[in-house]
Amino acid sequence: MEKTQRFSLEKKAFHVRFEGFEKEEVGWLIEHLVKAIMLKSFMGFNKKCRGKSGVHLTEVEVDHALARFFGQKGVVTIVPFYVGKGLFFIETVEETSFLQELGIFKIQGGYTVKLRRWSPREKTEARVKISMKEHTVLIALIKVKDGRWAFTISVVVVGVEDEKSDYLTIATTRPETLFGDTAIAVHPQDDRYSRYIGRMAIVPMTFGRHVPIISDRYVDKDFGTGVLKISPGHDHNDYLLARKLGLPILNAMNKDGTLNEVAGLYCGLDRFEARKKPWLDLEETGLAVKKEPHTLRVPRSQRGGEVIEPLVSKQWFVTMEPLAEKALQAVERGELTIMPERFEKIYNHWLSNIKDWCISRQLWWGHRIPVWYIVGKDCEEEYIVARNANEALEKAQEKYGKDVEIYQEPDVLDTWFSSALWPFSTLGWPDVSTQDFKKFYPITVLETGHDILFFWVARMVMMGIEFTGAVPFSYVYLHGLIRDSQGRKMSKTLGNVIDPIDTIKEFGTDALRFTLALGTAGQDLNLSTERLTSNKAFTNKLWNAGKFVLQNLPSQSDISAWETILACKFDKEEALLRLPLPECWVVSKLHCLIDMVTTRYDKYFFGDIGRETYDFFWGDFADWYVCLIFLFYEAS
């Protein structure tokens, strides 16, 4: 139930309708429709490509397919925008808009080499959609002179008197990263290995490559053998340790998951095949100690299912600390209110410990990074940031002459980077003089799931302040996620995904919508058959009560009867007191409900509104008032 995993649309619709009673115009930026449209777009261009899978399409084929699907060249961004009682779509082509301003902003970061989570199958960095799954793998112990590894491997230590018998035993679950090792680490207080600190070790199967034996408190002396192989190019913690100690970073793997020339004779082997073959060779040389099963959590791409590979790559980053400081101050000064309040701690924690943001993605469809390189020059040193290709060419010609050739960075912006510009880019920015921008920016309320408080909300706040000087919204309402009846997150692996279409067929659209609307801010909702059955009964009750009322209204031709009904006023106490006792009681209860609902709407307690409305209609109106009227009509 992907679309129903966020029950925000119901609450947004309720709030927009309520605001519409009090204001002439209400703006509603609907990101959910954009996601649906994007999905339809991909479905459409897949059909246009005669059934070809997107994995096998070339970049040109994708561009042509998209152009045919949208009816014009280039990617079209469809922006749904609700004003008053109408819904219309604004279409803008990929050029201009917020991309014109990104060049100035992007230069705050830079083109940096860092360890990223890489998807070899999709050939792009795997960011958010990563699932951790338990796997039982072989742990190998390898002798390294001085050392052994799990696979346990032995590593020869250089400079020890009895060189032939002195080995360090190292345990690892990934012997294929052996070729990327740049050090061996032990705990400084581990007496077993203190005499080896400062010496050199020979990495097996590398034709005698030497690495230092170092000490650091990061090493857990009670875990495994107490000896840690440091592979900065293939492990995040090792990478951080290498940066701290100034160790070299060696990458032994290509982006497709095969070993590169650093692996020597094993160059070209797939990473999983390279886990087996070197082990056989280690056994022949006597450096393999043993292998045994070990259970650990392995990150997998949620989209492709393959094991994610920590890999060093060159990416574009944005320096985040200056932006985060302003976003933190917005909450401190009361310019931004997060609901429920407890999520402010999470917001503050993330922004207080923020890291530089990698904004480049190796995908075909998206907003291209506004950076151009000089043909024949080192792209790490010579690049141009510009608003468009013409401006980039002018800058290049000024510096390198009229014959210079340039080409644009092929990477596109991270989806969350583009999404962070949503509140103002959809309203005409960077032209801040547009009517939409002046009327609807800043937005009053953002309603979204608590799971993307950092990924989307915090980034929208940072971008809004940076580009417009104002916090993009005053309130953030965080709803929960839809889970199964046991409180588990829905996943294909567990087989507990609920199809909303099937649910609607069984229980009805209204029952499903009302069930979702009853959720409490910030709390996940366990969607069970019992809940749906109960609310189906409620919608049936609503239908029957409405049918009863309609059946007892006078005919349209009875003008005098309708004039009598329309003459009844319920807004003053004197008018209520003139009503019969049942009507006086139920209308009084209705006024209490209206007051409560208005107060709850002002505080964004949407779940309370649903529950109070349920109680009034079922308990007061249907069970008491309708029954009393029914008995009255029968008696008369």
Provide tags for this entry.
alpha+beta; 5-stranded mixed β-sheet; 4-stranded antiparallel β-sheet; 39% helix; disordered N terminus
Describe the structure.
By secondary structure, this protein is of the alpha+beta class. The chain has 20 helices and 27 strands. It has a five-stranded mixed beta sheet with strand order 9-12-13-11-14, covered by helices on one side. A four-stranded antiparallel beta sheet has the order 5-4-16-18, with no helix packed on it. Helix 16 (529-551) crosses helix 20 (606-635). The chain starts with 7 loop residues before the first helix and ends with a helix.
State the gist of this model.
The chain contains 20 helices and 27 strands.
Question: Strand arrangement, largest sheet?
Answer: 9-12-13-11-14
Cα radius of gyration in angstroms: 32 Å
> Percent helix among the residues?
25-40%
Mean pLDDT: 77
Strand content: 15-25%
Discrete helix count: 20
Q: Class by helix and strand content?
A: alpha+beta
Largest sheet entry: 5 strands, mixed
Distance, first to last CA: 51 Å
Number of beta strands: 27
List unreliable stretches of 5+ residues: 1-8, 32-57, 69-113, 128-140, 145-154, 159-165
Molecular shape: elongated
